[in-house]
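Before the break, one more example. Copy the sequence into your notebook; we will annotate it together after we see the structure.
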Amino acid sequence: MTTWQPDILGDGYQQLSLPLGNDPDGEGQISATLVRYQPETAELPDRAVLYIHGFTDYFFQQHLAEHFAAQGYRFFALDLRKCGRSRLPQHTPHFVTDLEFYDAELEEALRIVRDVVGGGVLLAAHSTGGLVLPLWLDRLNRRPGGAGGAGVIGAILNSPWFDLQGPSYLRNVGTAAIDVLGRLRPREAVPGQKLDTYGLSLQSGGWSYNLDWKPLSGFPVTFGWLRAVRRGHARLHRGLDVGVPSLILRSGESRFAPEYDPAVDTVDAVLDVRQIARWAGCLGDRTTVVPVTGARHDVFLSTPGPLATAFEELDLWLEWLDGHSTAAHAAGARADAARPPSTEGHA
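Here is what the structure looks like once it is written out:
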């Protein structure tokens, strides 16, 4: 396997390329990129976080990695195929026709992280990643041993994309049209895009990132990709079982504005938070939903006050997760002890 290489984020950050072979969507060779935060002076805990980005995104949130490290987790992040570090010139940014294709890099990343760390892995995801991740976890949980047997201990979803925002006709008639166009003209761009409101809000807050990998007005949304997302939404709405406890962080309010103004800095300017609240119960297992007043779409790119609140809520949930995991382990041990001895093989 290729060795870890220095990452663009500088000291303490390395990256590892994960070759994925030929693209099932016909755009040549593809790969994903696993990033880790591992400062030289840090202790190496036996548990980790694996983070998945959203659409028009990649991993650059160093303060998030460093916060998890301070809480006793090693930190890893995955740039998915055709995204960020993983995108080649011939690739249509973020283009997939089936969200299940991402299982390949998710499972490889989880395998590597478990091999490196040895203990449990906490999964975290933002926006579209917050849809991709529970769909994968639901499939993983159906295998022998479930998600827990695969080493997953919990999931954190940061403003997950659980439904198509906008008027209701977009979710019925519009979805039918998306399904047809997504099959017939998958790489054609959906009209009416190029809104830079959210990007300008992030820049106004001083967040710095690669504009080639995360343009202010976003990458074009293609019909094939949107069809895959809508099929993912439908699967989520029928109910999943991710097999582990989940924390959902979201803004307290949404506001869609055609142009940037400072009020956008304190709302979700991308998704409808009411939809996140509505569909949160579809994940299965224990789900904790926390609205963070004044937060941006990426809760961890909020202004200082809401960002501090988001980290406080995260830390409280991590503390609860530790207690829950300990109690569940003890209950399992008691149940094993209470079982009568096996008589298999005895007359």
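The radius of gyration is 20 Å. The CA atoms of residues 70 and 201 lie 28 Å apart. Try to locate both features in your own notes.
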